[in-house]
Every structure is written in C-alpha cells, then in structure tokens.
Amino acid sequence: MSLRINSPAPNFEADTTHGWVNFHEWLGGSWGMLFSHPKDFTPVCTTELARLAALEPEFAARGTKVIGLSVDPVGRHKEWEHDIESAFGHSIHYPVIADPDLVVATLYGMLPEGANDPRHPADSITVRSVFLISPDKRVRASLSYPNETGRNFDEILRLLQACQLTAKFQVATPVDWHPGGEVIIPTTVTDSEAKLRFPEGWEAPLPYLRLVADPQTAK
Questions:
Q1: Which residues contact 67 (CB under 8 A, 6 or more apart)?
Q2: Which of 17, 45, 13, 3 is nearest to 133 (CA)?
C-alpha cells in the first residue's frame, strides 16, 4: 500500500553519492524532500536533476534537505552528475541514493503495478515520486509522475512552503496560493477562536470561507 498523508516516513539505510546514510539521522530536525527517477542517463530526469540543482538553495533556505534516488549504482550516479554539470552548468550537491534492489522504492511504494525486476526497464521506468517529509518524520505531501512528463519543481517548492505555513500557523491555503497571498481560517477554528488568533479580522465571502492575510507577511 502506498504511503498516505501523515504516515510515518519509513527509515532506511542506503549507499549514496555522499556515502552511507541512515535516512532519519540524515534528516535530523529538517524538512526533507525525497524524489526518485527511473534510471540514470534518462533525458527527462536529466533536465529535472539540473533544475533541482539550480533550485536547491531555495529548499535549503527553507530548512529542507533534498535527496534523490535511482535504481542504478553510485558510480553511475556520479558519471551522470558529470554529464548534467557539463550540459547545464549546475553542480549537484544533494545526495542521490543507489537502490539497485528496489529496497527503498518498495518501502515507499514508488513502483508501478506488477514491477518486480529492477533490471527490466518496464519495472523501473515509472519510479518517479516525490515525498515531502516534516521534521517529525511524517509524509506531508506526495506526488507521482508518469515517465514522459517532467516534474515542476517550482510547484513542489510552492507546495513545500504551503505545508510549512500550514504546519506553523494552523491555516489552510486556497487554490493557486503563493507566499504573501491570503490564507484560509480552517472550519475547525470557531469564530471566537479566530478573533483571538486574528484580531484584525477577516473577510468572509461565504460563512465557511474566511480569508486573512498571510501570517508570515502580515504586520
């Protein structure tokens, strides 16, 4: 069964391009993003790793560690990283897990239906998942993409910011929210409680839709 929102993020130990890691120990008290791709030297994922290398400082600025995964061994990862830097000019500073026996991919439910052999392209080609993990080691968001569609890491960064905001301030975010935009007072918060938390008040286009300024930017 695939991991669900708020499921404990399974721990594991694995070899990576940065050496052997215990996942939970590596995360420490940080947020984390675990993302996977089918195999090294694949074109769509090559563009993704390059884009994420450029964006990694944005994740780091938000207290989030990034770690990748592929079914290929560490040596292949490092060769691929050299290709990516040569073509795109971005060095990859985050670790990439070697998962040739599909241990982590299976633990996190990353594989397509019927997959059982990591050496067969059909069994690893859709290992393209993203998990956002909070400091308490729980899955706060997850996404899966087909092999032909490149991931949008700008959107994943936006999703991370929304998860961090809602965890810190117990609010919700509306459609197409971006940092600085209005947020929603959840229906679990009564008007009396909301008055204490948001003394400046709120707009309510509907009785159950109460909008307030982003608490991270509100003065």
A1: 16, 21, 23, 26, 32, 33, 34, 35, 94, 95, 96, 97
A2: 3
Map residue 4 onto helix, strand or coil.
Answer: coil
User: Could you tell me which residues are beta bridge partners of residue 172?
Assistant: 184
pLDDT-derived band at 124, boundaries 50, 70, 90: low
- 142 bridge partner residues: 131
Q: Which two tokens stand for residue 60?
A: 């780091």
Catalytic site positions: 45
pLDDT of residue 123 exceeding 80: no
CA 177-127-91 angle, 5° bins? 70
Confidence bin at 102 (pLDDT 50/70/90): confident
The residues, ordered by sequence, that sit 6+ positions from 96 with a Cβ below 8 Å of its Cβ are 16, 17, 67, 68, 69, 70, 74, 77, 81
In single-letter form, the type of residue at position 98 comes to A
pLDDT for 116 equals 60
Confidence of residue 158 (pLDDT cuts 50, 70, 90): very high
Alpha-carbon torsion, ordered 174, 178, 179, 183, to 10 deg: -10
Q: Enumerate domains of the chain plus CATH numbers.
A: 13-151 (3.40.30.10), 170-212 (3.30.1020.10)
